Amino acid sequence: MSAMTAPILETRRLTVRFGGLVALDGVDVAVGPGETLGVIGPNGSGKTTFFNALTGLYTPAAGEIVFGGRRVTGLEAHAIARLGIARTFQASRLCLALSVFDNILIGMHARRTTGLADSVVRRWRFRREMGAALERAAHLLALFSRELPGRGFEPVGQLPQIDRRRVEICRALAAGPTLLLLDEPSAGMNPEETAELMRDLQIVRAEMPGLSVIIIEHDMFVIEGVSGRVVAFNYGRKIAEGSFAAVAAHEEVRQAYLGTERARA
Amino acid sequence: MPPLELLLQQALNGVMLGVMYALIAVGFTLFFGVLDVIHFSHGDIFMLGAFAGLSTLLGLAAVGLRAPVAALPLAFVAAILVTGLVGVLAERVCVKPLARSSPLMTLLATLSLGLVIRESVLIFYPRGADPKPFPQLLPQGGFEVGGVAIRYENLAILGIGLAAMVTVDLIIRRTRMGAAIRAVAQDPEAAQMMGVNLDRTVDATFFLGSGLAAVAGILSGLYYSEIHFIMGITGGVIGFSAAAIGGLGNVYGAIVGGLLFGVLQTTSAALIPRGSEFRDVVAFAVVMLFLIVRPRGILGEQSVERV
Amino acid sequence: MIAVWLSELVVFALVVAGILAERPAALAATGGALVAAAALLRFAPPLRTALAAGFARHRAAALAGGAVLALALPLALRASPYWTFVATLALLYVTIGQGLNLQIGTAGVINLAGAAFAGLGGYSVGLLTLSAGWPAWLALLMAPWIAVTVGAVLFVPILKTRGHYLALVTIAFGFIFNILMNNLEFTGGPQGLKNIPTLRLFGWAFTSKPALAGVELPAHANFYYAALLVAGLTTWALRRLHDSWLGLALNTLRDDEIAARCCGVSLTRGKLLAFSIGNLCIGLGGALYAVMVGFVSPPDFDFGYSLVMLSVVIIGGVDSIPGVVLGACLLLPLPERFRFLHEYRLLLYGAVIVVMLLYRPRGLWPAAVRRYR
Fold first, then answer.
1. CB contact, 8 Å: C98 with chain A?
2. What is the pLDDT along chain B (307 residues), one digit of tens a residue?
3. Rg of chain A's alpha carbons, rounded to an integer?
């Protein structure tokens, strides 16, 4: 693991509170460059809260987040995104009325070099940059499907679910991030779609070998397949860390899942 | 600094205005509760209630019925029926069909519907552009307590307003329909699964809220002795402000908000030089500040936004 | 290309004929022809696609043709100063509508105080010329920035409040503006400001009658051309902004704030920029209006006019730049043409908006997919 090299992301005693409720309780997590970290845990264990804190949507009550050697705790979401953290959401957050290309181009918004004056009076500069951006968007889409680039100017709402998830991943990749957060990408998918998703994630891996990834998943098959190291959450705390096999065998993890199983029954 | 008596007097007047505002605000908040929409034509329904009440009174006077004890209750009933039906119609035509699209859509649609109602009164009511004198049916005169003049008329307005609020509170808390309204406000889907008829409940809510606006309309006519087709714009904005101050979806919040707005208006009229001209500036400025500091109202909005 | 120009010419001729037709029969004939033309396009898809393709292929030519006809309109209307005035008003509403559309349509920043911002532009021109003694052209350049500056008091509410609450805050702002104009002494109270001096450019007073190609035009034609220039520039600039990073960022903020922020879009910068640019356009429209009519008073900028401005955007097409142009050019002149409808004007606006929202929520000319050309 990444004990030798400096981690790209490190949280120290990260804590998030909502009123009296402690949603995230002193979490220490580190991710190295090029590493894929899996995050598991029962519903309500604080996984998505962890992502929301990392991306600046929630302000931590205590602890700190260090990204790329910089303390980013308390920065606004857009500022953190510009530093190179991109994410997807559990429930798709695409703008369904906008085109497929628009939904990916917004990922490149932070890296634009042309401003308002270029958009209006020095339009050629803007056109040149936008031409390259559109090509890059088409290239990203082509990684996943041969026909998607041709549908770039269609509203994203017309695409099937699996392609929407791909567009969302493209949007995250378009930002050229150093850290990608995937929040349960297989949510709402059937087994075939999940298998396709795993293939897609391997494509991402191959395309950007230096990219660090943190993936939240309920599907243990996906977690085992894509992540090198796994952490488990329960009640906002990190309860286990290590290889998939070690974490899956961990007593507290088993109890956390069995407990919810029992509660469900 | 004006004398204490003047302030007390203004506070009392404020409470009375506040009761009328609260009656409008409760409608806003009920509609928001069941459908998560702002029914912006509600202000004009309030105006329509005043005109329906006036027409009834004029009609009754024409057939010789002038005794306030008989005429006034009939006017209330007629106005409540008219606004209730128009309210339900408004909901069926342009609130519910749009409730699932963006909030902007219902806001714009009801804003435009309000325009239609307003212009209809202007055009189709005889000499609709002029302010209409409203008959004085409440007992005149009054008494004085510690330098504060209390008029019977004002007491009657206060009493009718409070009675209307208590009635609505009882309907909401004690009847089956009230239980259905509360259930839908909490969670429309769960309520439906529990056997609540959603359409009927929404209709009932709009009838109830719009009926309250009619009560407010007649009270406003009795208080100012005059009604005008544009009274719905200010009435609507103030009612909406009061509901927002109280926290949308919260009935008690709306009442508190209405009273606060009334008192704010009258006390700023007393405290500020040329206050009677600028009282609404102060009141609206306070509402704006308030919404910045507490975007969800004093008692809190009922629905919760999720990230 | 010829077909494009020809169809533009036909529409132009029918509109002019419709405006100028005196006898009911003539009016009915031109109106019928317009309706027939619209129906033909509606029910003959091949013709429609062919024409659309023609316009798409010869965009530059189509725009040039449209510009020539717009320039020629005062010639056709020269007999009627009144109609020149109405056409100018429609152009001012194009400018205002583009600003409002950037706020509401593109960025989702609800502004129900459009009339107040137009009023800020208009009153600023009045005060700068009458009280400060500035020349009209300078006041006209300055006034929109005053609207933007005063609009800054809404910056905090825009960032802190959402949806309904923001709508309420802007309505309250409009009310406050109106009450203040009605009661402050330096703004002239209910009477407003009178005798605002007219525009004078390079020694040319806008009250003198211009001549075009040897034909004398009514004095209002001066303002027609000024308004045409302003509307054209605004539309051009806002179309380019819409089809740029800014437009994309604003649309994303409108549709999903959280996704936009996580893509590095600054909520603060986006919303405030959209609001301010919008107010600049609205204030400019109001300022030009004040110079044109020579006076401003509170009822010219009350809540009802905010609703008219909103109607232009909704009926034309929310977030649609050409839609705003179409909306303004339909909504302002139509009630003037049918004077018997004038009384019912607001009633009809209201009813039409409700029907549009129910059955055609994207407007007469819906926003197209951004192509970044």
1. no
2. 567 788 888 888 899 999 999 999 999 999 998 888 889 999 999 999 999 999 999 999 998 888 888 889 999 999 999 999 999 999 999 888 888 887 778 888 998 999 999 999 999 999 888 999 999 888 888 888 877 888 888 889 999 999 999 999 999 999 998 999 999 888 888 888 888 888 999 999 999 999 999 999 999 999 999 999 989 998 999 999 999 988 888 889 999 999 999 998 888 888 887 777 788 888 888 888 888 887 776 666 654 333 3
3. 19
Asked if residue C23 belongs to a domain, the reply is yes
Q: Would the CB atoms of B287 and C351 count as touching at under 8 Å?
A: no
The pair of structure tokens assigned to C316 is: 């034309």
Whether residue C127 contacts residue B259, with contact meaning beta carbons closer than 8 Å, is answered with no
Q: Are residues C67 and C92 in the same domain?
A: no
**Does residue C364 form part of some domain?**
no
Q: Could you tell me if B285 lies within 8 Å of chain C, comparing CB atoms?
A: yes
SS3 category, C142: helix
C-beta of residue C252 within 8 angstroms of C-beta of residue C265: yes
10 Å Cβ neighbour count for C21?
A: 16
Return the SS3 of A181: strand
Instruction: Enumerate domains of chain A plus CATH numbers.
Output: 1-84+177-265 (3.40.50.300), 95-176 (no CATH)
Contact predicate A35/A4, CB 8 Å:
no
Chain C residues touching residue A123 (CB < 8 angstroms): 240
Of the options 1.10.287, 1.10.760, 1.10.10, 1.10.3470, the CATH number for the domain spanning B4-128+147-293: 1.10.3470
CA separation (Å) from A193 to A93, A103, A125, A259, B14? Answer: 19, 22, 41, 29, 64
Is the sign of the CA dihedral B213, B216, B220, B221 positive or negative?
positive
CB C112, CB C118: distance < 8 Å: no
- Which residues lie below 8 Å from residue C315, measured CB to CB, with a gap of 6+? C327, C330, C331, C352, C353, C356, C363, C364
Q: How far is B206 from chain C (nearest CA, A)?
A: 19
Q: Give ipTM to 2 decimals.
A: 0.92
Return the number of other C-beta atoms located less than 10 Å from residue B145's C-beta.
9
Which residue from C252, C264, C267 is facing A95, i.e. has the nearest CB? Answer: C252
Q: Model-level pTM?
A: 0.92
Distance separating alpha carbons of residues B191 and B195, to the nearest angstrom? 7
The whole domain housing C23 covers: 1-76
- Residues C34, C17 share a domain: yes
Looking at this protein, which amino acid is placed at residue C224? Y
B123/C357 Cβ within 8 A: no
Chain A interface includes C255 (CB < 8 A): yes
Decide if C12 contacts C20 (C-beta within 8 A).
no
Q: Give the C-alpha separation, B100 to A165, whole Å.
A: 24
Q: Where are the domains of chain B?
A: 4-128+147-293
Q: What is the CATH number of the domain that holds C191?
A: 1.10.3470
- Residue where a domain stops, chosen among C26, C60, C76: C76
Only one residue has tokens 């009550």, namely: A61
C171 to B116: CB separation less than 8 angstroms, yes or no: no
Report the chain A residue with the minimal C-alpha distance to residue C234: A120
Go through chain A and tell me how many residues it has.
265
Interface touch C344/B119, C-beta < 8 Å: yes
Q: Are residues C141 and C111 in the same domain?
A: yes
Contact flag A86-C371 (C-beta cutoff 8 Å): no
- Both tokens of residue A118? 């270029």
User: Domain boundary residue among C76, C94, C115?
Assistant: C76
**Is residue C368, in this structure, part of any structural domain at all?**
no
Residues from chain B contacting residue C307 (CB–CB below 8 Å): 111-112, 115
| B103 CB within 8 Å of a chain C CB | yes
Specify the number of domains making up chain C: 2
> Is C191 among the domain residues?
yes
Count contacts between A and C (CB, < 8 Å).
100
On whether both C37 and C151 belong to a single domain, the answer is no
